[in-house]
Amino acid sequence: MFSVIIYGRNDSHGYNLHKRAAISFNAIAEVMSDPDDEILFVDYNTPDDHPTFPEAIQDTLTEKAKKVLRIFRVRPEQHVHLKARTHLVALEAQSRNVALRRSNPRNRWILYTNTDMLLVPRDEKQSLSDILGEIPDGFYQVPRFELPEMLWEAAFDRKDAVGNIAKLRDWSRRFHLNQVVHNFMPMRYDALGDFQAALREDMFAIHGFDEEMLLGWHCDSNLAARLALYRGSVDTLVDKVFGYHCDHTRVAAANNKGRQTKMNDQDRFIWDVSTPYLPDQAENWGWPEMEIEEIRLDRDTAFERFSAGISAALEPAAEPYRTTNLEWHLYNDLTYDLPHTLPFVCDQVLTYPRNSALMFVGTRPDFLSRFAVAWRAMGFTGPILVPRECEGLPLDTPGVEAGPFNDLLRRTDMFIFEFGVATQGINEPVRTGRILEAIDEKRLKGVERLFRQAAAREEETRPAHRRLSRRFIGVNVIYNRFWPLFTDYISANINPFCGQVLAGNPRIDPTMKGKVLRLRGRYAI
Amino acid sequence: MTDASLFMRFSGVLLDTWRKGLDRFATHSAPKPPEETDPELLYVRARGLARAGDYDTASRLFVRAGELAPTMAEALEAQGEILDIEGKPEQAMSKYEAVRKLRSQIRDSAPDRPFVLRQRRRFTAEIAAYTSVLHSIRRHTLPHIARGNAYLAEGRPKEALNDYNDILRWKPNHPDVMALKGEALAMLGEHDKALQAFDVAVAGRSKNPDILSGRAISRLAVGRLDQADADWRRQLELLPAEHASARGCVALRLADYEKALPEWERALEKEPHDPYWQLYRLTALHRLDRSAGPIQIDTIDVWPQPLLALHAAKLTADEVLACADTPERRAEALFQIGVLALPSDPAEARKRFNEVVEKAPPSMIEYAAARHELARLGS
């Protein structure tokens, strides 16, 4: 019957976002009763190494919410062409159009709202699907009622959607919450963007939201203006459903700077609208040709993929724990516990696109063979690229493609550089003062050389489809001699030794030291 | 004439001009009937009273407006809002339901026409609301267009034209507004002027199928059949495949039944019970000399079922014409009678098509289709 379209990213948009959003997702799912109903969340421009916002809060969502939720992940690389034109990190029009393009074509209605709304049918026996199923074609709004921050924060249980809706029915009168704020036409009510129901067919006919609106605010009013022209009127559902907004002004959100707030031009996008149509974006609104990843929380979840990867690559530990040691006299001991480290490496790659091409440069053949198994089992379809310059690695491992380093550089989406001991066996004790053999030193030297070159030449060797810098994952680069090397080139956080993994993007160091480093790296031999 | 009387007359002229200037942004008031018999004035007054908190008087006036104009859904809705505020939700909801029932009973007009002309109902609330907006926001496009469109959709092209011309005063040749002006002029029967407006609009919005539709109709009205056909053919190219009913309408205007038939079949997949799509499919099948199979007729009380009954040979031409209670319905009936007569009695068909062309407005699908049929018959 209807597709709800909302958007956001895995950040901190306003006060206690996680609770507001969980309350809202669960409450919206609760008033759905048609098998085709869906909540489409566009996760816009969350950094690649983060999960999407709904994945980050999935434990607070009801089973029903997880079942109806479809997440469309718009990657930073897909946003980068707009970056110079906006101060915002999440774009409303683009997000909503990406979802509209990919919405269930069997649904008659599209409902635009936000991740802090609860929709309460006035007739307890009716779902929102029932309501939308009964009404004639049109463009509908409802007034937004404000909910003081204390109420939703202190009294709502995130997963008790039924209870929360019941509380609102009680509070609406007890706390005098229901105040309809009328507005100028075509914005029939204030804060209209929290409930605008339009026919899916109408939204396609008018070419979706206006994607020129890149500065935030008034996207909802622009839509109202255009749909009001298209339909001739703005109808109300105030007799059928009340909409409650979890107020979040205790802390201003990123797009709210008081009187200094940058906004889309009201005159251009509201008062001088002259047609419902957007002919300049008629063919490309919602990025129809772009491949947008879809993520579900009721199947093939991040944990299921991670678990499948590790289970395929490793046997469970046979002992309660193993030990290592970071005392300084072991600084040059480069042994590490592969079964313990591999899950941390998998964790670093799991949130990346499944078709990513990953370059592996390292010393330990058992790392490559086991990582390749995990990579496939986690659902990745892209190749693991291994430079022929890396000696001693099992290049015939399924999923591995070997080639000259310089060629592979231009195909790579992310890198793993592993600095281990080529001769170390998987069951050897670690950090016990092992002395490196000549072959170990030779292999490490090769890895170091390729690392310097890759990091120094990252920008100029990017694949044609990439504009953003690529991620480097360093394995066994903490508290040993490769720590300074890795962090000279890569902007990595300080991580605990236990994980053995650092990751980040190439440092942009404009100082003389940075320039020298890049020069050394470029010609590393 | 004394200086004083000259001064009085001059002041009167100034005052009148000033009033008219103000009125351009308000109601364009022509002489109006007294408020108590004019549902629109009653509605506007009641709306103001309701916003001022006088719900009793407002409610009485809304009821009176509804009595005078039973199709004025906004009066019912406003009553519903007052009842809701007064804590009578059941009564309120029955009013809202009545509004939705009223609106669901109104059939949109031809889907190949511009969005503004697809809606066919009263827009009293919109006219009042945008008039109110215009008191605050004058030199902007939207409120003028929105109110002009509301007038146009109500069949009041003169008032619409005033609003469009207001915009064109400071945005000359704005293509979207020129397109609307063209439609208003066409509705007034001023097709030559309409064509001038459409030409400007098409130059600025060459890929807008709505504008081509308007220009085609005006071109046809002034006898330029070939040029009209060129616009309709271009409109067909521009309309997306999923707009089957709109494409079917354009093909039918062209009397291109080979093109129309698959469009009607697709339209019926989406809206299987739409009687007009069924009728137009039968029209195309008949003109292509293909069998339609059994025709299901549930009732002949509701238009256009008598036309389906005509195709099923369950009503005669005279019986159908007797059911056609408006000029538009009569034109639809005459066209279908002509279509059915064509194979066996071309002279009768020609006569019926001629009647359509003489009586129907050029914006009707049947008018254009009849013109094409007559051209083929060599008339």
Automatic annotation (TrEMBL), chain A:
<protein>
    <submittedName>
        <fullName>Uncharacterized protein</fullName>
    </submittedName>
</protein>
<dbReference type="InterPro" id="IPR029044">
    <property type="entry name" value="Nucleotide-diphossugar_trans"/>
</dbReference>
UniProtKB/TrEMBL annotation, chain B:
<feature type="repeat" description="TPR">
    <location>
        <begin position="141"/>
        <end position="174"/>
    </location>
</feature>
<keyword id="KW-0677">Repeat</keyword>
<dbReference type="InterPro" id="IPR011990">
    <property type="entry name" value="TPR-like_helical_dom_sf"/>
</dbReference>
<protein>
    <submittedName>
        <fullName>Tetratricopeptide repeat-containing protein</fullName>
    </submittedName>
</protein>
<keyword id="KW-0802">TPR repeat</keyword>
<feature type="repeat" description="TPR">
    <location>
        <begin position="241"/>
        <end position="274"/>
    </location>
</feature>
<dbReference type="Pfam" id="PF13432">
    <property type="entry name" value="TPR_16"/>
</dbReference>
<dbReference type="Pfam" id="PF13174">
    <property type="entry name" value="TPR_6"/>
</dbReference>
<dbReference type="InterPro" id="IPR050498">
    <property type="entry name" value="Ycf3"/>
</dbReference>
<dbReference type="InterPro" id="IPR019734">
    <property type="entry name" value="TPR_rpt"/>
</dbReference>
